[in-house]
Amino acid sequence: MIKIIFSIVLNCLILYGISKINFASIEINSNTTLIIYGIVRLIGDFLLDHILNPIIKIVNLPLKYLTLGFSSLLISTIYTIAIISITNIFSPNEGILITNDFISYLKLAILISPIQYIKNLIV
């Protein structure tokens, strides 16, 4: 239970820190949105690791070699778009605001991916 709460808090802190850097043009309107993001990210990580990851690895393996790893970045960006969209569904009035261009989501995925990797090693 403590591991789950710790993971949610770390997810919230990661997004909050990235929003303060403002490199990815992200704006968070409330702390409730951060908590919803942390929970959605935790559930998404669990589903991705246990259900979708074997399928994604099989499909992505040839693409990873053909695109020199760029396909992994695209998958991470699509995952980030999905997590932010689901968070905004659960908090429509005070959601996470990102400029709706793909580059902003790509920047966010580039920032979040290595930090999430380190978080997963810790937790």
Q: Total number of helical segments? A: 4
Q: Give the ordered list of helices and strands.
A: HEHHEH
Helix content: over 70%
Structural class: mainly alpha
Number of strands: 2
- How much of the sequence is in beta strands? under 5%
Residue runs with pLDDT of under 50 for 5 or more positions: none
The coarse silhouette is: globular
Main sheet: strand order: 1-2
Whole-number radius of gyration?
A: 14 Å
Task: Count structural domains.
Answer: 1
Q: Could you give a short account of the major beta sheet?
A: 2 strands, antiparallel
Distance between the termini: 12 Å
Task: Describe the overall structure.
Helix 1 (2-21) crosses helix 2, helix 1 runs antiparallel to helix 4 and helix 2 (31-66) packs antiparallel against helix 3 (70-90). The model has no long low-confidence stretch (mean pLDDT 86). This protein has helices at 2-21, 31-66, 70-90, 102-122; strands spanning 26-28, 96-98. The chain is built from 4 helices and 2 strands, in the order H-E-H-H-E-H. It is globular and about 40 Å long. Helix content is 80%, strand content 5%. With 123 residues, it is mostly helical. The longest helix is centred in the middle third of the chain and has 36 residues, at 31-66. The chain has one domain (2-122). It has a two-stranded antiparallel ribbon with strand order 1-2.
Features:
mainly alpha; two-stranded antiparallel ribbon; globular; 4 helices
Topology, pairings included?
Blueprint: H1 2-21, E1 26-28, H2 31-66, H3 70-90, E2 96-98, H4 102-122
Antiparallel strand pairs: 1-2
Helix pairs in contact: 1-2, 1-4, 2-3, 3-4
